[in-house]
Design brief:
Blueprint: E1 4-11, E2 14-20, E3 25-28, H1 34-42, E4 53-55, H2 61-64, H3 67-74, E5 78-80, H4 82-92, E6 98-100, E7 106-109, E8 112-118, E9 127-133, E10 136-141, H5 149-155, E11 160-164, H6 169-174, H7 180-187, H8 195-205, E12 212-216, H9 225-239, E13 245-248, E14 258-259, E15 272-274, E16 279-281, H10 288-292
Parallel strand pairs: 3-4, 4-5, 5-6, 10-11, 11-12, 12-13
Antiparallel strand pairs: 1-2, 1-14, 2-3, 7-8, 8-9, 9-10, 15-16
Helix pairs in contact: 8-9
């Protein structure tokens, strides 16, 4: 059985991914309602009742929205550190079936080895993950204000990387709906990565082993899929990283399931998926920009 990864959705209002191996069925964060998570799992022929565990990066609502209901109704083990447990139980006003890890430590969920490491973000004890499977390694960097040397080194072994490209700096600065205090928080070293900052991080992380790159956690107000895609794609072209497939995750619909055992050795074209149109865009199409803006 191949290892399967599905980004069920990623954006400022909700983040959740599903990883399946021979021995594990894991959610990475649970940032949608329980009903929405069930619906998205059912769209790929899966059910929350069969989950082995839920990994939590940090306690912000766009990463734990469905956790309370799932934990209460299904008693699925939740893997997080102590500070995150205390914070999410305070927010949810309920006890959660947690299995605690120490940040920087490693543990196993079935046949998945989970390596944890600290990331700079304005939460209690936020973490990133490197998930080691028999078919390849998956790095998860959903929320961080900047990349540290530790972060770079811990995900350099990734074959698949999920990294946030939260905002375009100018769109954020010009956004009329956000107070200056919020803009400062997002732009701070414990806020979120811009498109350019994400490209800088990937330039440091890039290796011949990286095969698939997802851009996630895009802001609906302060970013656009085509902008994030173009910034990263231009940087990858400069690096000569034609062996990496680039995809922008959507908050509104799951990405196509990636089977790690089937990642080809030959270069793949970068694609921008529009879930509303159910199509893929390739660089160079004349109507690329206009179509992408309808996402």
């Amino acid at each position: 059985m191949p290892v399967r990864l599905t980004i069920l959705g990623s954006g400022s209002a909700g983040n959740c991914a599903y990883l399946e191996t021979d021995e594990a069925r894991i959610l990475i964060d649970a940032g949608f309602s329980f009903r929405q998570i069930r619906k998205r799992l059912e769209s790929i022929g899966r059910a929350p009742e069969n989950l082995t565990g839920i990994l939590i990066t940090h306690e912000h609502s766009d990463h734990i929205q469905g956790l309370g209901a799932m934990s209460e109704k299904l008693r699925i083990p939740v893997y997080c550190n102590r500070d995150t447990k205390d914070a999410l139980e305070y927010q949810l006003q309920a006890q959660v079936n947690c299995r605690l890890f120490t940040t920087g430590g490693t543990f196993e969920v079935g046949d998945v080895v989970v390596e944890t490491f600290t990331v700079p973000h304005d939460a209690q004890d936020p973490v990133g993950f490197l998930l080691r499977t028999l078919a390849g390694n998956i790095g998860v960097l959903t929320d961080l204000g900047h990349t540290t040397r530790l972060v770079i080194e811990r995900v350099r072994a990734a074959n698949v990387l999920v990294i946030e490209a939260n905002h375009d700096v100018k769109l954020l600065q010009d956004c009329p709906h956000r107070p200056w205090s919020l803009k400062q928080r997002i732009l701070s070293r414990h806020g979120h990565l811009s498109n350019e900052a994400a490209a800088d991080a990937v330039e440091e992380i890039m290796s011949s082993d990286l095969s698939h790159l997802y851009l996630g956690h895009l802001s609906r107000e302060c970013n656009r899929p085509d902008m994030a895609f173009n910034v990263m794609n231009e940087r990858m072209q400069k690096l000569g990283a034609n062996h990496v497939r680039l995809e922008v995750a959507s908050q509104s619909a799951p990405c196509a399931t990636l089977e790690l055992a089937h990642i080809p050795a030959k270069p793949l074209p970068a694609v921008l998926h529009d879930p509303q149109m159910q199509t893929h865009f390739l660089p160079g199409l004349g109507d690329f920009g206009e179509q992408a803006r309808s996402v």
